[in-house]
Design brief:
The complex is a heterodimer of chains A (550) and B (631). Chain A is mainly α. Chain A has helices spanning 3-20, 32-50, 53-80, 100-120, 148-156, 163-176, 183-201, 208-240, 245-253, 270-288, 296-303, 306-331, 336-359, 364-383, 388-414, 431-434, 436-450, 456-470, 474-500, 515-533, 536-544; strands at 89-91, 96-98, 415-417, 420-421, 509-510. Chain B has a two-stranded antiparallel sheet with strand order 1-2. Classes of the chains: A mainly alpha (550), B mainly alpha (631).
Chain lengths: 550, 631
């Protein structure tokens, strides 16, 4: 193409185009949950900039809780308005899907985030230093660990209140992630929630080098997987000539009408579809922590500040599974016979791998990390059922699991010795004798993880396994049950350790938390037991929310 | 009218619920309430009975469907009742004798601070027993069967502060479990064979199933009957069950519950008729127990245990009669009813004696009581005459008919069975005369109890003597009322069927022979215990006597064969569990642990290794996807 031709193309487009581009039609009310949270995050940055240091903590905490609560109210209002069922549709010019799964997952994410924010704001666990209350986060993130600057910051009582807006930004991304209805929105949402998480991981007050190492690893591997995802998006665009989910699905089904001439060569090329689909799948499996894309999980879960670990383990997983569900059910259902066998293999190695490696873990946070990998496998078993029951069972499981997880990590923050949290398992010996209540609460969470009846873990696991079995994956369920049995071993082992071992003389103490952490743990226990004893209402809710808009 | 059937059960059940849940507040009225509800049940029974008499033979059976119990597609079980002549007989016996024993217990248990609870248990027993005989299907019958087992357990161990009572209750429960297992297997076999539990379809289609199946069901039912009715080889619990309060021994372990086995076999007559082999086993069990119980009864010095041996023996007669088939069913039930009267009366008499003798049970320490307890003496004496078969009294008719039917079995079997029943009659006369003589005649051999109180025998209060008098009337007249004009045969024939058996010898000869053995047995007892003084401490006795005192070594046998054998079996199972099962389990666990340790090494902390894992995983993912498409 000659230079003049390029120039004329440019001028005509510029001259004629600008007038013709219509203003996009944005349904602000239906996007309210995301907009509220994102707006509050921006406001939080302004607070950091303009409010005096002393006032920031309370202002940020207030703003975050109010914003998350308001967003949740908006989700409830939308659901009550029928946007989850009869009025489900695609909003924001095809970028966002407003349907049952979107609202259910957004609601779950918001509730889990509120609870997580409570644990973020906890300032009673450590004794006051220099007259200042301290939280789980570094006094000054930019100060070199162990340097004079860090000591000055501690002495001055600095706190990193930026964690609140960072968390809000992450939540905003997570709200969009399962609702994304085209691949670009998906990618942007992914980055929006990933980047704040990388930062949050690096902010631990103690063991700062380990925390920073975790953050760097997470960032490197996250960037690596984002590259795969982006490449997959490019290949799918080449295949379908569009990034819109609906359009890609049409091309896969072969029902597409008008084909753009510039893409006629590549369009419908199945190699592009399969490779692109696999790459996008890989990007999402990385986020949910499925084997063999799981290896970041133990290191990051261990290094990150424990409240952040709980937040990631709960909310990120919900968002990522939501996106995965939508991709498999909306974009690639026509490819079911291609992705199911591969996913079978992923599910099996994830369930068994997570459970088996967890057996020999000696650190409670790493143990919970491997447990989360095994649980990712269980949830994936429901995902690949490829039935409406599969969707609703996964939604239910995610809701149940996220509260157990946050609660469990919140308990981990309470058990402390001179070096901060005492995460080595040997230190938990005899905890039940010294602090029966805390140990009992942790035992409830462990039993829920193990899937013992009368806890939410059982209801959830039963739902996904039933969906998988009905969906023709009986063999997978057998493997799942075996993996559950293996997993039960290491959960029960912790209970045995807590209640039936002699306490060690130099063992840790259990800090008495403020109302914030108490509330977080309390909500976790209540949800765990309610969903375990009377799950039917929530199962019905999940099953009503089970329909994707196409 | 059929709506009243449920009320029969509901009245005592309500009593049990109120008395057991009501707490101390009811202590003062509890016994009256329990007695009243038992009597109410009896009144309802009488109303139903008179109504039944008003209808003709075929229309006498009533059904009541209360509710659907287990409504699963092909597994239907209803709570439904069937009231026919057979269950009517039992209802009147249970509620009638039951009410009398409630009244008796008011006096007998007067000084027991847990009297309210005792009446609660008695009411519970009545409800369960009525459920057993009124059920219209085997599953509900099983429910009642377990219910009476529970009530029996609670009442045997009522004086739980005595270790012997607690042990006896446990023993009764455990031995009964063996029999219950038989019943549950029989019920399961019925379901797999006929697809239902209801009496009508099961008993109506016994011809459709193979004889082997019928034999299996029959033998399992017999096992159940052996447990509940204390027949060989599950008889060991009945003697120990005498640890319970005497009214319990009278009601449950003499008159009603222990006859449940006879009811079961008679009710399931169609099954046994279709399984001659099972029937033969029934007859053998009955014959063996008949002699076994009688021999044990001869050697016991404990008055209640002597009577318990007698109960075993008399139920042996009933089981034997039931095993004879249609020629015997009616007589089995008839003997059951008359036995219910005289044995309950005998037990109440024994209780009255104990009441006056500081709860002493050893007959060697009685003697000469007839002057001190005239009412007890007369009623006990009438019961004694009835059970040995004194002409004209109840036992004379009912036992004589069984002996005739045994001869009528025909062939060698008939002669053997007839001889056994005659021998049994002789021994019965012997041991009952022994009891009578040792208790009421001869020298006073009274001994002070462990607190040093010299006994002052006195007649029991009215609440105790009146039931004894009423039961004595039954002991005297019931047999004649039933037998003359074949009333009882006509009454039961529509349910059990009846076939008149022709004995190879005439009825008069049988009666004559019975009289002769009776006189021989009684005379021998008089020679041994009436003419000579009875020593206070038991003499060493012959080998047989010593064995009989130890219940013919049944406990020793059980201990050596079952307990030791069971211990060896469990020990070897434990060994297998430890080595084989645990070996596999621990091996699996160890292998997972080892695998975990190896896999863990992959997690080396280097981001580059993690990236390679992701890259490799993606490559495999893509390759596999493409491969799936290619194949």
């Amino acid at each position: 193409m000659s230079a003049t031709a390029v120039h004329s193309l440019w001028t005509t487009t510029a001259a004629g185009g600008i007038d013709k581009i219509p203003a996009p039609n944005i349904e602000y009310a239906q996007l309210a949950p995301t907009l509220i949270v994102a707006g509050a995050a921006v406001l939080g940055i302004l607070i950091e900039a303009f409010l005096p240091r002393k006032a920031r903590y309370h202002a940020q905490l207030f703003l975050s809780v109010v914003a998350l609560a308001a967003a949740f109210a908006a989700v409830v209002a939308l659901a009550a308005g029928g946007y989850g069922t009869s009025k489900k549709h695609i909003a924001a010019m095809g970028a966002i899907a407003i349907d049952g799964p979107t609202l259910f997952l957004q609601g779950t994410i918001l509730l889990a985030s509120v609870v997580a924010v409570f644990t973020f704001a906890e300032r009673r666990l450590d004794p006051e230093s220099h007259g200042n209350r301290i939280d789980s986060f570094a006094a000054q993130a930019a100060a070199v660990p162990g340097s004079e600057g860090e000591k000055d910051a501690v002495r001055a009582g600095f706190t990193t209140t930026e964690v609140f807006p960072l968390a809000l930004f992450a939540v905003a991304g997570m709200l969009v992630f399962p609702a994304a209805n085209d691949l670009l929105t998906l990618f942007i949402a992914l980055e929006v929630f990933s980047l704040p998480l990388y930062l949050l991981c690096a902010l631990a007050r103690r063991k700062r080098l380990m925390s920073q190492e975790a953050a760097v690893k997470y960032f490197l591997l996250g960037a690596f997987s984002s590259a795969f995802l982006l490449f997959g998006i490019a290949l799918l665009y080449g295949y379908a000539g569009s990034v819109s989910y609906a359009r890609i699905a049409e091309v896969v089904d072969g029902t597409v009408q008008n084909v753009s001439p510039t893409l006629a060569d590549t369009m419908g090329n199945d190699a592009l579809l399969l490779i692109g689909g696999a790459l996008i799948l890989m990007g999402l499996l990385f986020k949910v922590g499925a084997v063999p894309f799981h290896m970041w999980t133990p290191d990051v879960y261990q290094g990150a500040p424990t409240p952040v670990t709980g937040f990631m383990a709960a909310a990120t997983k919900v968002a990522a599974f939501g996106a995965l569900l939508r991709l498999l059910y909306v974009v690639l259902p026509g490819l079911r016979w291609d992705w199911r066998p591969v996913m079978w293999a992923v599910v099996i190695v994830t369930m068994l791998g997570g459970a088996i490696v967890a057996i020999t873990q000696t650190d409670i946070k790493r143990l919970l990390a491997y447990s989360s990998i095994a649980h990712a496998g269980f949830i994936l078993a429901g995902v690949i059922a490829a039935t409406p029951e599969g969707i609703s069972s996964v939604l239910f499981y995610l809701g149940a699991y996220s509260f157990v997880t946050i609660g469990a990590f919140a308990v981990v923050t309470l058990v402390r010795d001179a070096g901060g949290e005492a995460t080595h398992l040997s230190k938990w010996a005899g905890l039940g004798r010294r602090s029966p209540l805390v140990a009992a609460v942790f035992a409830v969470f462990l039993l829920a993880f193990a899937g013992i009846p009368l806890t939410s873990g059982f209801s959830g696991k039963f739902a996904v396994f039933k969906a998988a079995a009905d969906g023709g994956a009986g063999a997978l369920v057998v493997v799942g049950v075996i993996a559950s049995a293996i997993a039960a071993f290491f959960y029960i082992r912790v209970i045995v350790l807590m209640f039936f071992s002699e306490p060690r003389p130099e063992g840790p103490t259990v800090a008495v938390p403020s109302a914030l952490t108490t509330m977080a743990i309390g909500i976790g226990v209540v949800v765990t037991l309610v969903l375990g004893v009377a799950p039917q209402y929530f199962l019905d809710l999940a099953s009503q929310a089970g329909g994707f808009v196409r | 009218m059929e709506n009243l059937i449920a009320l029969l059960i509901a009245a005592p059940l309500l009593g049990a619920a109120v008395l057991l849940c009501g707490g101390r507040r009811l202590d003062r009225v509890g016994h009256w309430l329990g007695t009243l509800l038992a009597a109410a049940s009896f009144v309802i029974g009488v109303v139903l009975f008179s109504d039944m008499l008003g209808r003709s033979g075929d229309g006498r059976t009533l059904h009541q469907h209360l509710f659907s119990w287990i409504p699963v597609e092909s597994f239907q079980a209803d709570v439904a009742f069937q009231l026919d002549q057979l269950s009517m007989t039992f209802v009147l016996l249970i509620t009638g004798v039951g009410t009398l024993i409630h009244i008796y217990s008011i006096g007998y248990m007067e000084h027991d601070e847990r009297r309210r609870r005792f009446f609660g248990y008695l009411n519970l027993f009545l409800a369960a027993m009525l459920l057993l005989v009124l059920a219209d299907n085997y599953l509900l019958l099983y429910f009642g069967w377990e219910g009476v087992g529970l009530a029996s357990y609670l009442l045997i161990g009522f004086w739980q502060h005595k270790p012997s009572a607690a042990t006896a209750a446990k023993k009764a429960f455990l031995v009964n479990r063996v029999g219950d297992m038989g019943l549950s297997i029989a019920v399961m076999l019925m379901f797999t064979t006929f697809g239902t539990f209801a009496f009508g379809p099961v008993l109506g289609s016994t011809g459709d199933a193979t004889e082997g199946k019928m034999t299996a069901i029959g033998l399992m039912l017999l096992l159940a009957a052996c447990g509940k009715s204390a027949q060989v080889p599950l008889q060991s619990w009945l003697g120990d069950a005498m640890e319970g309060p005497t009214p319990v021994s009278a009601l449950i372990h003499a008159a009603t519950m222990v006859t449940a086995g006879v009811y079961l076999i008679t009710r399931s007559g169609a099954i046994f008729n279709a399984a001659p082999d099972a029937q033969l086993v029934v007859v053998v069990v009955g014959a063996v127990t008949l002699l076994f119980g009688a021999v044990v009864g001869c050697a016991k010095d404990d008055i209640k245990k002597a009577l318990a041996g007698s109960t075993m023996s008399q139920i042996g007669y009933m089981i034997l009669a039931a095993g004879l088939g249609p020629i015997g069913y009616v007589f089995a039930i008839m003997h059951l009813v008359t036995h219910g009267f005289f044995k309950a009366g005998l037990f109440l008499g024994a209780g009255s004696v104990m009441h006056g003798m500081n709860d002493e049970v050893d007959m060697r320490k009685y003697g000469g009581l007839r002057k001190h307890m005239p009412v007890t003496f007369v009623t006990f004496g009438l019961g004694y005459l009835a059970i040995i078969g004194f002409p004209g009294l109840s036992g004379f008719f009912s036992k004589d008919l069984i002996i005739e039917a045994a001869f009528a079995k025909g062939g060698t079997q008939g002669w053997i069975l007839g001889s056994v029943t005659l021998l049994g009659a002789a021994i019965t006369a012997f041991y009952m005369t022994r009891v009578m003589l040792m208790t009421f005649f001869g020298e006073k051999r009274w001994q002070p109890d462990e607190h040093g109180h010299q006994p002052h025998p006195h007649e029991s209060p009215k609440s105790m003597t009146i039931p004894m008098i009423i039961l004595a009337f039954g002991s005297v007249f019931a047999g004649g009322f039933f037998a003359i004009g074949e009333r009882f045969v006509h009454w039961l024939e529509p349910v059990t069927g009846y076939h008149h058996g022709e004995a190879p010898i005439s009825a008069a000869t049988v009666t004559g022979a019975t009289m002769v053995v009776l006189v021989l047995g009684a005379a021998l007892a008089w020679l041994m215990y009436g003419r000579r003084p009875v020593p206070v401490t038991a003499p060493r006795g012959s080998l047989l006597t010593r064995a009989a005192r130890r219940d013919l070594l049944q406990d020793d046998f059980n201990h050596v064969v079952l307990v030791r054998g069971g211990e060896h079996l469990t020990r070897s199972l434990v060994y297998v569990d430890h080595t084989l099962v645990d070996g596999v389990v621990n091996g699996t666990a160890a292998s997972f642990g080892g695998l975990s340790g190896r896999l863990r090494k992959l997690q080396n902390g280097y981001a580059r290794t993690y990236a390679v894992s992701m890259f490799g995983g993606t490559a495999v993912l893509i390759a596999a996807t493409l491969l799936m498409r290619a194949v």
